[in-house]
Amino acid sequence: MRNTTNAFAALTIILCSWGIARGQAQELLPAPNQIEQLSSPNSATLQKQSDLIDEVLEPELIFSLFESQSKIVRTKAPVFRIAITNPSIVEVNEFSPTELEVIGSQIGQTTMTLWFNNPDGTVSTLRYLIIVQQEDDRADLEFGKLQARINELFPYSRVQLFPIADKLIIRGQARDAKEAAEILAVVGEQTVNQNGNLTNGGAVNVGSVARLPNAEDLQTTSLINLLEVPGEQQVMLKVRVAELSREAARELGMDFSVVEDSFSIAHTIMGGAGNLSAILDGGDVELFIRAFSSNGTAKILAEPTLMTLSGQSASFIAGGEFAVPTAVGVGGIGAVSTSFRGFGTQVSFTPTVTDKDMIRLSVAPSVSSVNQNLSVDGVPGLDIRGAVTTVDLREGQWLAIAGLIQDEQEASRSRFPLLGDIPYVGAAFGSQTTRRIETELVILVSPELVHPMERDQVPLYLPGMEVTDPTDKEFFLHQQIEGLPGYDFRSTVWPTYRHQIHHQNFEQVRLKREARKCRGQYQESEGYYVHGPAGFSD
Fold it and tell me: Which is it for strands 123-133 and 61-66: parallel, antiparallel or unpaired?
């Protein structure tokens, strides 16, 4: 009972003391209406302040410190007085009138005032707002400045920086792949590793970017890129190479030979200089006239399609290769190595999505064919139509990146001297040829942003899957070289594969079968009529 009484008495004393202290504090604090009055003083009060107060000094500079760290301050004029508002936050050690140490004791903010003796006998005052923060807070502050700088440089992107230990995580959305690479370059320029070297080699592709004042404090050893580029990044390129070539040629010439018992003379024109020979012999007379006209047309149409990711290169070739022997010498001994040269339809390109639907293409399409007329030492040459260029296109647009209109005309005449120059008769002693070739060529490209197909979007049958081997009856009796679709002769693989396709696409197959069944039955239904009560059926 006695202990209970003592505890009650102690509690009463504490409550009374707390009430008295609270009342005194409330007396010290001005009332809300008094604050409004103090914020708008009258002219007499302002005049009183002007007469008594020369100036009110506010903090002029910020002095940053880290907890349990210090900075040495050397002054040009001697300091004769130092005032710290909260000594528990900052501690000052004076080594001399011109040298002192400022130590961050604990996290917080306070003010420090220094009084200086000037050489002319006057006194100067300097006030600092001292901020003591943790080591992690410093990194967050500097990376926050860098993040704001990046978002200012790239207004169409949103970037966030998260320093974790010695790593820096970069996340957010970039406008396109090119801008994402530039953001990484800027971050690599501004951050340094523990050895003081630039993490990205200092290569920046966006012009000169000034480093932050405290960039040396941004210490990272690796960058983790989590930037995302919105939109489709798979690019499909369509290329069309169309060429039309027309050729017309005419030739006129005459070959003859006269053979007697004791005399022979012959004249032959084979596209070159005329040859005249005479032999005494017995025989007959032969005459051959060559006169012809030829016309030819050639058309090439190639439409390759290729797909790759933005920023990645891809190549495509459909054609063949032929061997090209090359003589090499090894240790003074001759040898022959063989390399292969390709021909056909070739496409190589590198797309870069620079905007939502703007694509930059570095493309090199070509179509080549073997030409035996250009052969050297038995190695054939190539006729090539191609182009190498870089263009900007929006999705679905077509652009003719190359074109050619060529008109070639050739004419030649060969004749026997003197005899070939005789009017009318000279045609028997010569040959003449004319040839004209017209060529038109155009190369078109078109990019598209694509995404993978869903399972139900895949075509039911691919090209060639409906071509089957004919049966003996179809081949020998009906003279067919292709069998009925779906009934492959002597095939053990095709029925199983076809069953798998039908099983995977059962719903599509069922709908097609129902559609075929309805085509033959809808006319038959016209002969029937429906009777019964009006309304919806069950």
Answer: parallel
Q: Are strands 90-96 and 285-302 parallel, antiparallel or unpaired?
A: unpaired
Cβ–Cβ under 8 Å, residues 212 and 150 = no
Q: Distance (Å, rounded) from C-alpha 105 to C-alpha 460?
A: 76
CA neighbor of 416 nearest in space, from 224, 247, 269, 266: 269
Residue 228's contacts (CB-CB under 8 Å, 6 or more residues apart) are 171, 172, 173, 174
Q: Which residue has the tokens 């039908």?
A: 502
From the number of C-beta atoms within 10 Å of its C-beta (0-12, 13-18, 19+), residue 316 rates as middle
Class at the top of the CATH hierarchy for domain 57-133: mainly beta
Structure tokens of 280? 């005494």
Cα separation, 110 vs 131, whole angstroms: 7
Q: How confident is the model at residue 208 (pLDDT cuts 50, 70, 90)?
A: very low
- Provide CATH code, domain 136-192+217-228: 3.30.1340
Task: Dump pLDDT digits (tens) for 64-73.
Answer: 888 888 899 9
Give Dmax (Cα) for the chain. Answer: 170
Q: Given pLDDT bands bounded at 50, 70 and 90, which one contains residue 125?
A: very high
Domain spans, the chain: 57-133, 136-192+217-228, 234-255+276-324+337-449, 455-512
SS3 content of the chain, % helix, strand, coil (to 5): 25, 45, 30
Q: Could you tell me which of 180, 222, 218 has the C-alpha nearest to residue 200?
A: 222
pLDDT in tens, 405-434: 888 888 888 777 777 777 777 776 777 888
Q: Which residues contact 536 (CB under 8 A, 6 or more apart)?
A: none
Phi and psi (nearest 5°) for 381?
A: -95, -175
Give the predicted TM-score (pTM) of the model. Answer: 0.49
Which DSSP helix (H) or strand (E) runs through 227? strand 222-228
